[in-house]
Design brief:
Layout: H1 35-45, H2 52-65, H3 88-98, H4 101-138, H5 165-172
Amino acid sequence: MATATKRPAAKKTAPAKPAPEVEVEATEAEEIFGVADVVALIKTKLKKETTTRELRTLLRKMARDGRLDREIVAGNRTRWEFAGPEDPEVLAILKAFGEGELEQDKRDKLNALKERKAAARAAKQAEEDEEVEEDEAEEEPAPKKTTTRRRSTRKPAAKPVEVDEDDEELEED
């Protein structure tokens, strides 16, 4: 027979208080024209698609060449900031991107990688060939391997138990 149990009534909690609104001071002097804005500018003016990551690659290349005023050193993680869309550096970026410098740089790096890989493969192959020639000159040809039979997974049949005449005498007692 089942007995009914009462559940305790759920406690009512007060509704959560809304978080106080924090006023953000908006000043026009703090607006930053960064890489994302340059990407948007490229999309509108040049009608080309790119990502901020690809554009930062182009910016670092241009800075190394001296076309942008920025020092490229390891660990420099400061934001790229420009005065606006009419900034001479932004115009130089648009010009370089429009001329296909980013795509050309990608192709050059890919070709250089292919050449390094081919050279590494050739060196490895030559080294392996030398080792094979040395081994063949020093050693006699190895005998051919013979194929082995598979072992049976079945258990061997049980041997019949031999009954000695002496055992029969014990059983009779």
